[in-house]
Each structure stands twice: as structure tokens, then as C-alpha cells.
Design goal:
- The structure is a single chain.
- This protein is of the alpha+beta class and about 475 residues long.
- It is about 50% helix and about 5% strand.
- The strands form three sheets. The chain has a four-stranded mixed beta sheet with strand order 6-5-7-8.
- The radius of gyration is 21 Å and the shape is globular.
């Protein structure tokens, strides 16, 4: 349909390199340890989505779309409702990202499952007979590409106000959906180009807006549209990454020295970014986790409570200061889960920072606000200079009223790629989240199907297991 000439003659080595990876990836070429890891990542995202199905913003979004969309082809996970494939991708992505407890690629600054899985499973639902191996192959394609785009853009992308989950996420979704559809490399070039021009998302959404939760869903939907349209011959920007005027990288960076195109394809197919995706065991933004781990370690050595504290000083990267270090003002659950001082106060008062510790009533809790004011977050230029790999690194100093001073430095949190969770830990987290919404028998079925998905003759079995029966 005219794709070949449009892509082969373009100066797009990075876009085409990604497209060829998507088109040529085979299940047997994916190392066994990557296959095992991605199943755990997938299960984790499913748990986040099922838990998120009954949250207020999830209900508003679903009810709004149900009023407009009567096609009812694709399940909304953790519910008995169905929508069209694009609308289901929008909702399912929102559910995964619904409570700040889903995965994160820390260097690429991307919640990968939230943008990839809704698009891939939307395609699987349209293609009866997609095997479990083909499903995993498509997921790996999506999990590999988005993080590389994030690494290409660097930490300045989010620092200047773009929400990378929305902007970068479209490329994970497009890659996964394109692989699931079996697109050629030429078609995949266009899928990426269609997705990239839909890329948008503003970080100001973190200050209390429900719409922050929807950014991942929109990315999943946009990537799905890109692949579906490209499959029919619709064309996109063939040099979406390389173009110096209006390309993704040049437009969404302040200058050409702020991004590195080589990161897009460096090691692609041999070094798997899937292995560098971390899981969360706190229900808050990933930038907060190292500080919370530091406090847990110090309290294990010398127990102390919130009223014992004179001051807590957190030194971190510029991204940590900008992203989570602002003075807490109650503006909604989103701002509470993203704010570092508030989350520190929550840990000191409640002993944990999981889903039960965040309610609408807690947003304005005077004790949490009072304790949060004891937390000071400042930049350590030496940490910033260490680059994106260490952007969550912190040095935490606790000064107690009795004169005791303790200090802890944490480079990466528990559940991170450096210290990944065990399979038992991931399954336990899934059960804790999913059991709040669906019957235990169904919980166990999702675990079994996900952990053995490569044996399924039809990935539709997994889709059905995620839906609540009417």
C-alpha cells in the first residue's frame, strides 16, 4: 500500500531499526530468563489493574465511556464490563496506573506494563488463536522499546514538564500492538510514526488531578491506534525520532544535546531492558521508595516515632527535588502519593505506605501534614551528576530530639532491577491486590494462566480470566 518507498528512502535508521526489531522478533530468540521475568511483570500489572477497577477515577472513566460506546467487544479487567478495543485499552491502562503501585523502568522513567499490556491484549482479543508464545513475544517488543525511548530522552524530558508515561509510553504500546498484529517492518515504521504524533502528557497533572491516572491509558490507546491504522495502510511520520523539525526527540527536548538517538537501538535484541524494570512495594511514585527504604533501615537499628524526630533531611538528584520534593499541600490522592514529605510522614505514622494508607480522608490529615513539614528535600549535585541510573539515589539524615543523628544512603529500592523480588513476593502482592476485587478462585486462575502463558494455545483464555463474569 505504498509503505515501502515511503520508509526505505527516509533517513530514519533508528526508527527503522526499532521497526525491524518489532517485525523480526521471535519467541525462541528471547532468552529464558527474560521470558520468566516478563511473566512476573505481567502478573504484577494485572494485580494493579484489578485493584484499580473500583477506584473513583476508574469508575468515572468507565461510566463515561460506557455511556458513549456500545460495541462491547473487549473486557475491562476486574469488571463485568466490555468496551471497544481502543476504549478498553484506555481504561485498562488507567487501571494499571490507578494507584501508583505498578512497575517502573527507572532510567527510562516509564511504567511499562500500563502502556504495553492493554494494547497487546486488545489485539489478542481481536485475533482468536493467538498463542501464549506470540502474546509473550509481543509483550517483550513493547517492554523493550518504550524504556529505550525514555533513555534516549534522558531525565531532562520529565524535568521540563513532560509526563514520560504518556509521551514515551505510546511507543511501547505501538511496538507491542504492532508485534501482536504481525506487522512488517515498513508497517511498524508507520505505527511508530502514528503513535508518536499523538504523544502528550503534562507533569502538572501530578498535583492532585485525576487525569494523571489516565495518561498511561491514553498512551496505550494511541499506540493501539497506530498499529491498527498502519496495518491498513495509513501512514505516519517515517522518521519520527530523527526529524530535526517536528520529530519526537527534537520537539520534546530543549536542545539536541539533551537526547541521545543511539540509545534507541543500542543493544536492541541482545541487552534486554525488560530485566531492568522494577516493581513497587509502596503505593507511591518510585522516586519516593529509596527514602522510605532508608527510613525503614534506620528504624530497624534504632526504633523511633514521628514525635521523636526533629528533622529529616533528604539529599537527592535534581529530578527527585523537582518531581517529589515540593512542600506538601493537600490537593487529592494523586498529590499525596507523589509527594515525598507526605509519604515519609505516612511511613512514620502508619508503619507502611501501601494501598490501605491512602484514602481521601487522609489527604488532609493534620498529623501527616505536620510531620511532613519536618522533611526537607534538597539537591546533591554529586548525585545528579551520576546520571539517570542513579536518579533515585538518596542520602537521608535523621536528627532526633534526643540529639541522635543517623544517616543512610540508598542507591536503589527493594524490588528494583538490582534486587528484584522473588516469584513468591510477586505472587503474594498480586493476591493481596486482586483478592480485594475478585474471588480467590479467579485470583488463582489468573496466577496459573499468567505463569504458564507460554503453554496456552489461545491467549484469549487469559483475557477471559481477567474479566468478572456477569
Amino acid at each position: 500500500m505504498g509503505h515501502a518507498n515511503a520508509t526505505e528512502n527516509a533517513a530514519n535508521p533508528y526508527t527503522r531499526g526499532i521497526a525491524e526489531f518489532i517485525a523480526n522478533l521471535r519467541y525462541d530468540s528471547i532468552p529464558g530468563h527474560v521470558r520468566e521475568r516478563i511473566k512476573l511483570l505481567i502478573l504484577d500489572s494485572f494485580g494493579c489493574a484489578i485493584f484499580g477497577a473500583e477506584l473513583p477515577w476508574s469508575r468515572i472513566l468507565l461510566e463515561t465511556l460506557l455511556a458513549e460506546d456500545r460495541s462491547a467487544t473487549t473486557p475491562v479487567w476486574g469488571t463485568d464490563q466490555r468496551l471497544s478495543a481502543p476504549h478498553a485499552a484506555l481504561v485498562n491502562g488507567t487501571l494499571v496506573q490507578g494507584f501508583e503501585i505498578d512497575d517502573v523502568h527507572r532510567v527510562g522513567v516509564l511504567h511499562v506494563g500500563a502502556v504495553t499490556l492493554p494494547a497487546v491484549l486488545a489485539v489478542a482479543g481481536r485475533r482468536p488463536g493467538m498463542t501464549g508464545q506470540d502474546f509473550l513475544r509481543a509483550c517483550v517488543a513493547g517492554y523493550e522499546i518504550g524504556p529505550r525511548v525514555g533513555m534516549c530522552m534522558g531525565p531532562e524530558h520529565i524535568a521540563q514538564g513532560w509526563h514520560s508515561g504518556a509521551t514515551v509510553g505510546v511507543f511501547s504500546a505501538a511496538a507491542g500492538a504492532a508485534a501482536a498484529l504481525g506487522l512488517t517492518a515498513d508497517q511498524a515504521v508507520h505505527a511508530l510514526g502514528i503513535a508518536g504524533t499523538q504523544s502528550s502528557g503534562l507533569m502538572a497533572a501530578q498535583f492532585g488531578a485525576m487525569v494523571k491516572r489516565m495518561h498511561a491509558g491514553r498512551a496505550a490507546q494511541s499506540g493501539l491506534y497506530g498499529a491498527l491504522l498502519a496495518a491498513r495502510g495509513f501512514t505516519g511520520i517515517v522518521d519520527v525520532f530523527e526529524n530535526p523539525y517536528g520529530g519526537f526527540c527534537s520537539t520534546m527536548s530543549r536542545s539536541t544535546d539533551r537526547y541521545d538517538l543511539a540509545r534507541l537501538t543500542q543493544g536492541l535484541g541482545t541487552e534486554f531492558e525488560t530485566m531492568r524494570i522494577a516493581l513497587k512495594f509502596y503505593s507511591c511514585v518510585g522516586s519516593n521508595h529509596t527514602t522510605l527504604d532508608a527510613l525503614r533501615a534506620m528504624r530497624a537499628r534504632k526504633p523511633f516515632g514521628p514525635d521523636d524526630v526533629e528533622e529529616i533531611a533528604v539529599e537527592g538528584s535534581r529530578v527527585t527535588v523537582d518531581h517529589v520534593g515540593w512542600k506538601y499541600v493537600p490537593q487529592g490522592l494523586t498529590s499525596a502519593q507523589l509527594n515525598l514529605p507526605y509519604c515519609v510522614a505516612t511511613l512514620l505514622l502508619e508503619g507502611d505506605v501501601f494501598v490501605d494508607q491512602f484514602t481521601e480522608a487522609d489527604v488532609s490529615n493534620p498529623e501527616r501534614i505536620r510531620i511532613s513539614q519536618k522533611v526537607k528535600v534538597t539537591e546533591d549535585p554529586a548525585i545528579t551528576a551520576r546520571g539517570a541510573v542513579y536518579r533515585h539515589m538518596v542520602k537521608v539524615t535523621v536528627r532526633l530530639k534526643d540529639g541522635t543523628e543517623m544517616q543512610e544512603t540508598v542507591e536503589a529500592p527493594r524490588g528494583s532491577e538490582q534486587s528484584f523480588a522473588s516469584a513468591d513476593d510477586v505472587v503474594e502482592k498480586f493476591i493481596k491486590l486482586a483478592s480485594r476485587r475478585i474471588a480467590r478462585r479467579q485470583v488463582d486462575r489468573v496466577v496459573d494462566l499468567t505463569m504458564n502463558v507460554e503453554t496456552l494455545p489461545d491467549a484469549g483464555q487469559l483475557i477471559d480470566a481477567l474479566a468478572v463474569k456477569r
